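Our preliminary data section would be incomplete without showing what the modeling component actually yields. Below, a chain of 614 amino acids is followed by its predicted structure, encoded as tokens that our downstream tools consume directly.
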Amino acid sequence: MSASPAPLTPSATEPSRLRNFCIIAHIDHGKSTLADRMLQLTGIVEGRQMREQYLDRMDIERERGITIKSQAVRMPWVADGQMYALNMIDTPGHVDFSYEVSRSLAACEGAILLVDAAQGIEAQTLANLYLALDNDLEIIPVLNKIDLPAAEPDRYAGELAQLIGCEPEDVLRVSGKTGEGVAELLNTVVQKVPAPVGDADAPARALIFDSVYDAYRGVVTYVRMVDGSLAPKDRIKMMSTGAEHELLEIGVISPEPLPSKGLSVGEVGYLITGVKDVRQSKVGDTVTLAKTGASDALEGYVEPKPMVFSGLYPLDGSDYPDLREALDRLKLSDAALVYEPETSVALGFGFRCGFLGLLHLEIVRERLEREFGIDLIATAPSVVYDVTLDTGDHVEVTNPSEFPTGRIAVVEEPVVNAAILAPKDYVGTIMELCQSRRGNLLGMEYLGEDRVEIRYSIPLAEIVFDFFDQLKSKTAGYASLDYEPSGQQEADLVKVDILLQGDRVDAFSAIVHKDKAYAYGVLMTGRLRDLIPRQQFEVPIQAAIGARIIARETIRAVRKDVIAKCYGGDITRKRKLLEKQKEGKRRMKMVGRVEVPQDAFIMALSGETEKKKD
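Predicted structure:
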């Protein structure tokens, strides 16, 4: 087989010459590095333009070394004297971005399952494999990083073969760093991945699997053609909204946008209509022709269910319209983001946002601050609770401030099935951690001689804070975690309010298990005592469940020595001054308000503490 790249010819775009595939793996198993070698080997990126993680376009991706956005790229490849067009999608590996992976899989016929030859199968490897199998994709098992001194390719090839049901010899071995075995991998993709199937004579139907916003050209929509064809100047229609537009440009990504004469069955490419309204391009929508279009839309994607909720508020209230526009644009490239307006007595106007996990929350907040220049406060993460009152009414609570104050019959919380993969030496430590987070053991299975998969049912609220950090620290970084929602369960939950001088501060309220309410109250009151500056009067900080106070701290008043100027003389003069000061402080306490500085909000909600300077 030849391994020489050549320019794409029109015949290479016939469905029989197309191969659509993606790379799936656990985080940090070398997907982006392998994609770099493919770009170099196929010749679409010149050596002087090449850089590491070429397809990771965001600064935040390059700094953290993780893929956040799926990226599609079209590469030419010659095999057996025939020219093929390979459409490859590089996907994220973290559990919080599994929605990106699921959308990418729907645009492919095959998947390269990549496993680190030094670390072996991990939790997200299994999760992504099951996603690919659900989509009936051809799986190509590959071991990466075989050049590492710690690599054990024979051992992990056996594990991977057992998992997929193939022979260890069928597992390909490559090095994304040196390029060893990459040409053989591309040849295997041509051989094993089936060509796309579709009706070239049927009305045009294209599935939107992603979109981005360009400041100069408007919304750029990424599509996978299923039936028919589209060409420049065609009048197209979005089937979910009915909106019609003229196609200004159509083409493929190779890896930069490359205008073409159109897209036909099985091709992956982009559309530009010049539309600036970001709501016009919805992920999962079907694009067809306006006049002779299809009557039936393609089956889209299952709407992502937010797992974690947090409030995002601008530090400067005048930035609220900018935050709304920024979220609209971010939603275009991050379909899993959900948000709605809300107001807070303490923080003003903002948005209640739903995320797939804590990393998703962190990345969205950082992108808003970097890409749109908006300084934000994020409230403590919470999950959705279903509350049933004595009257039989149901209330869905996404924010502690919505928690009903009447008589409550039942509170239900979301539960997830967590899969933890780790060396067998850490089984006891992991079980101890899960039991402390109200987990129930579902089962345990050995994947090899010393690797075990432990499955637990754990309340989502126990996972979203620091569970992953604790798991990593207790297992020396060897454990990996994956979880999926598994319904609701009844729980003994209460709402803990934080009161400043008797006034409730909704930003610090939290819904916690009854057994942990006292600990949360002591933690937050102590934290706020250290962060809020001293006032002219004494300020009580209290934690309360309903009308019952469960914890209290006091910020001492700033004292001024009013009798410093009195020396000698009658004691009654000093007493008179002290009584006058005491009466003034009593009046101030009645009418004074406690001002909580913005940095105290940020530190208290993020868990940072810093002793205040008196």
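The chain has five domains: 10-192, 205-289, 309-378, 399-490, 494-606. The longest strand covers residues 408-423. Preliminary results of this kind motivate Aim 1 of the renewal.
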